[in-house]
Amino acid sequence: MPLLDLTDEPSESDLSVISDGIAHFNDEDIRPSERRPLAVLIRDDDGKVIGGLSGRTAWGWLFVQLLFVPEALRGQGMAGRLLAKAEDEARARGCQGAWIDTFNPPALRAYLRQGYEVFGELPDYPPGRTRSFLRKRL
């Protein structure tokens, strides 16, 4: 019988066995995802990255995994600019939609302003907040 090994310090090679295995399974079960990373970086005057958006495209969708705007740039439409640039690239890659999740109320309002709609919620994640899942047709 296989041994189950619980760890909070998995190695990159251990995690790669899992991600490669599910990718192979999905390629056979559905079709290849054509997964590609995507990032829109905010750089300061010296070229240093100070924020931005990271995610990926796969199966015709953009997934925005992380979006961070430095405090000094908040309230100036920067989140909308990041999303628009990522969405343009996603369209160029043939994507039909985009999705993102957040538990931050100001971020939720920003995404709604950009045309995203809530399609699901997870209450009390984290405690006292609701994690909202949003999508947008491109």
Q: Can you give a write-up of this model?
A:
The structure is a single chain. This protein has 138 residues and is of the alpha+beta class. The protein has one domain (34-137): Aminopeptidase (3-Layer(aba) Sandwich), CATH 3.40.630. It contains 3 helices and 6 strands; from the N terminus they run αβββαβαββ. It has helices at residues 12-29, 78-92, 105-113; strands spanning 36-43, 49-58, 61-68, 97-102, 117-123, 130-137. Strands 1-2-3-4-6-5 form a 6-stranded mixed beta sheet, covered by helices on one side. Strand 1 (36-43) and strand 2 (49-58) form a beta hairpin.
Brief digest:
With 138 residues, the chain is of the alpha+beta class. The protein has three helices and six strands.
Short key terms for the protein model shown above:
138 residues; alpha+beta; Aminopeptidase; 3 helices; 6 strands; globular
